[in-house]
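= Protein in question =
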Amino acid sequence: MITVSQNKIFFLSLSCLFLLAVASCSGSLRQNSDESTTQPPSARSTSLSENTLSQYQNCLSNDDCIFVNNGCCDCANGGKEAAINKRYLESFNNYFNCEGVPCSEMSRDEPCGCGTVICVRNLCMYGMDGC
């Protein structure tokens, strides 16, 4: 018969194995995303993944950060609101090829970019608290 403490140890062991698996995979994901930023932007129109976006988000203070649409369309039409370091704005924008990309013609109550950009733990972040 399995006791409660043995059950806890079993689940703790499973949790540790899961965390190790995630940690080992994150290195390979980061490697792939690093390679994708060097590819020409000609085929890119969708939002960047969180992993790739983070390469543009390093900061030291709130003044380093600016609002961007992550993708070709604004936040109401398929894009995502984000914040990046303003030093990387040109490189970030060059990542996308938006010519001829169809965006929906939706609207929303709050305008895109009405939130707040801040530097949190050395990453630019966007929050909707200003809307």
About this structure: The mean pLDDT is 75. Strands lie at 65-70, 80-85, 116-120, 123-127.
